């Protein structure tokens, strides 16, 4: 993807942290006028033209994520170390159209999720899942086991999933979205 985008004129800059977007209102349209960022602890900005395209990742389900292992659980991060939450909070101050980040970033316990990958020798699991779901690997979306306690979902990507993945190895990705029950109502997060 990066190779294709670069070949088509996208200029990637790594090591930059976007801290805010400045908006300009031209009547019935609002657009990003400047990008505020930090590079090597120096605050800088990029002035944009009206026809520039800006794609922004704001606080997301992978912001402030952490990794676990076979022997330790991932750490729960609640202090918004990832700059995308702060960026979303700054953008949300501009207009209610940009959402309410505090619904998510101040209630981590109610919006967290876990994901994991599983590696197999052979394709037995893939064959069984394809029979169960009716989707060949790489053609369908998530398969959610709605009756599981964790709303477990599995994604069978087209194989090989990784560069240089051995021919007899299959890998799938899965996640769970915790189900929180209060009284008689059930809140499903994910």
Question: Can you give a write-up of this model?
Answer:
With 190 residues, the chain is of the alpha+beta class. It has a domain at 112-190: D-Amino Acid Oxidase, Chain A, domain 2 (2-Layer Sandwich), CATH 3.30.9.80. It is 18% helix and 29% strand. The chain has helices at residues 2-7, 83-92, 102-105, 108-111, 124-133, and strands at residues 17-25, 30-39, 42-47, 113-121, 143-144, 153-155, 169-177, 179-182, 185-188. It has a four-stranded antiparallel beta sheet with strand order 4-7-6-5, with helices on one face. A three-stranded antiparallel beta sheet has the order 1-2-3. The radius of gyration is 21 Å and the shape is globular. The two termini are 26 Å apart.
Shape: globular
| CATH architecture classification of the domain at 112-190 | 2-Layer Sandwich
Q: For this structure, what is the CATH class of the domain at 112-190?
A: Alpha Beta
Helix content: 10-25%
Ends apart, CA distance between termini: 26 Å
Rg, rounded, reads 21 Å
- Uncertain segments are 179-190
Strand order of the largest sheet: 4-7-6-5
Task: State the major sheet.
Answer: 4 strands, antiparallel
Order of helices and strands: HEEEHHHEHEEEEE
Strand content: 25-35%
Assign the structural class, choosing from mainly alpha, mainly beta, alpha/beta, alpha+beta, or little secondary structure: alpha+beta
- Tell me the number of helical segments per DSSP (H or I, 4 or more residues long): 5
At CATH level 3, the topology of the domain at 112-190 is: D-Amino Acid Oxidase, Chain A, domain 2
What is the overall pLDDT average?
A: 85
Q: Based on DSSP secondary structure assignment, what is the total number of beta strands?
A: 9
